[in-house]
Write a structure and sequence with these properties.
single chain; mainly alpha; 75% helix; globular
Length: 534
């Protein structure tokens, strides 16, 4: 006999409280980090463009294909609000989309995969209560983040209408991807598959939006923009036309996505996915039988995605280097703190772009090695170690992929930055400058390895915090009045910012030694401790 709708949602409040209790720190960090970028970026642009003439000059630089593809059309680039949209809107919107996907999967497919959902349903929860609670919590994260963004914009004396549209448009992206991720969780049979599918959809919508902006007439995107939720939110045009209508489409997509997901959930068996897993060969190849081959096979989608990101970033950085140099005033204190003490403003701009490449490689390395902890949390590691595979070889394969993948990103991003810079630098010089950040990336990997050995349950979160603090110090340390000595105590701040600064070997050696010592300690402890599933 089929349960009533009330029965299927029995215990909804309990499920919401349970998910909030498990994720309160994660939710707080996501909302706080995304929102705090508003005053940081706004303060930097006030110092960089203090006069209307400077803003008008920037609007000419922003009106380029590279900027349109990366951050959207510069429809109000002559105002502080419009510059804020160009600088940070796309980053915040896409980041909140990622947050929605990862949060829905963590409390959806991942819990079902681990057997937690079955246990909860066997007691007080109706069939759809846990899923609906998951969608509500993820949607609340988007609403709170959007509200904080709007309030911070208002506190900076930005126009009221634009401030509210700014927060609503970013929140709309997060809410829309709750619905999309809900469907992905029903289609895939594993949390890795659900996350990969969700990330692929974000990438698809991002490139559709980029294509629409590249085909724009003046500041009006092509019709292709309406095939992407990111394009819908961008067409709200905060601090410009302030159009609220696209928000209805974003909310409608979220509601339809969640309703379809619940319908699919009622038609499938618990633990199964709508898309059946493809059967592999009866016997594995020699490549997959090796620990390194298996890691590469499991990480291939992530590797491809990050490498594509490095290519796009390198081409973008090189394409706008000279234009950015023309806009920044060498006597401006912000410009000096932002680009460093270079021999020229162009060297300073190239140095900050090389730093960006290093930070991208560091984020990839953390995400890649964090997959090792995910294998342990899910219990799959115990099965792998039941045979002849040693802990050292298993963990070493993950470290090798993260380390070599990051150096490929550095070299590729640096080379493309140089060759696309219209003569500002050469591909070889930018490759060398980017490679100098590899010891900083290895140090971050060493920290994660050390924590995976001594504090596995906290390892991923703590490493991301350390990475974030180093990013803020290296990028914005001057804005926060941090001394050079403090900045150089952080992994990425310690590396000489080539070509803006002279190369110094000592920091490279120190970073490398610390990375090796941390890695050795982490390996030693990991081999000795008990496995710790979640």
């Amino acid at each position: 006999m089929q349960r009533s709708s009330a029965g299927t949602l029995a215990g909804l409040g309990t499920a919401v409280r349970f998910i909030m209790h498990r994720n309160w720190l994660r939710l707080t960090i996501w909302a706080a980090v995304l929102a705090v970028m508003i005053p940081v970026v706004y303060d930097s642009q006030q110092q960089a463009f203090p006069t209307q003439a400077a803003r008008d000059a920037y609007s000419q630089v922003a009106n380029t294909p590279a900027v349109a593809a990366m951050t959207g059309l510069p429809y109000a680039a002559g105002s502080l609000g419009g510059i804020l949209v160009i600088k940070i809107w796309m980053t915040l919107a896409v980041a909140l989309g990622f947050a929605s996907i990862f949060l829905v999967t963590r409390n959806g497919r991942a819990d079902e995969e681990a057997g937690r959902t079955e246990l909860l349903r066997s007691a007080a929860l109706g069939r759809h209560a846990y899923s609906v609670a998951n969608y509500l919590v993820a949607g609340t994260l988007s609403v709170v983040t959007g509200l904080l963004i709007s309030l911070l914009c208002l506190s900076l004396a930005l126009p009221t209408s634009g401030s509210w549209v700014m927060g609503a448009s970013i929140a709309g992206i997060g809410i829309a991807f709750v619905g999309i991720s809900a469907i992905c969780n029903q289609l895939a049979t594993t949390s890795r598959g659900a996350n990969s599918l969700g990330v692929a959809i974000i990438a698809l919508f991002y490139f559709l939006r980029a294509g629409a902006d590249l085909q724009a007439t003046s500041t009006t995107p092509s019709a292709l923009s309406w095939y992407s939720p990111i394009g819908w939110a961008q067409n709200m045009r905060s601090f410009g036309e302030n159009n609220w209508l696209p928000l209805l489409a974003l909310l409608g997509l979220a509601v339809l996505g969640c309703m379809l997901a619940l319908r699919l959930e009622s038609r499938r068996d618990l633990g199964a996915g709508i898309l059946a897993e493809r059967k592999g060969p009866a016997t594995s190849s020699r490549f997959i039988s090796h620990p390194l081959g298996l890691v590469l096979r499991l990480q291939r989608s992530s590797l491809i995605g990050w490498l594509v990101g490095a290519v796009i970033a390198g081409l973008f950085f090189g394409g706008v280097a000279k234009a950015m140099t023309a806009v920044l005033d060498p006597s401006n204190p912000f410009a000096k703190s932002f680009v460093g003490s270079g021999h020229s403003m162009l060297d300073g701009v190239m140095g900050i772009f090389v730093l960006f490449n290093g930070l991208l490689a560091g984020a990839f390395a953390i995400q890649c090695l964090a997959a090792a902890r995910s294998e342990e949390e899910s219990g799959r590691l115990e099965t792998q170690l039941a045979g002849s595979l040693s802990r050292f070889n298993w963990l070493g394969a993950h470290v090798l992929v993260a380390a070599l993948g990051s150096v490929v990103m550095l070299l590729l991003g640096g080379y493309l930055t140089g060759v696309s810079s219209q003569g500002a630098a050469t591909g070889g010089s930018m490759m060398a400058a980017s490679f100098a950040y590899w010891p900083a990336v290895l140090l971050v990997l060493g920290v994660l390895l050390f924590l995976q050995g001594f504090a596995p349950r906290l390892s991923t979160g703590l490493t991301w915090i350390i990475y974030g603090l180093s990013l803020m110090a290296a990028m914005f340390g001057g804005l926060f009045s941090l001394s050079d000595d403090v900045i150089k105590l952080t992994p990425f701040g310690a590396v000489p910012r080539l070509p803006a600064e002279d190369f110094v070997l000592l920091p490279i050696i120190v970073l490398s030694i610390i990375a090796v010592l941390l890695a050795i300690s982490g390996f030693w402890r990991f081999r000795a401790r008990d496995l710790m599933p979640e």
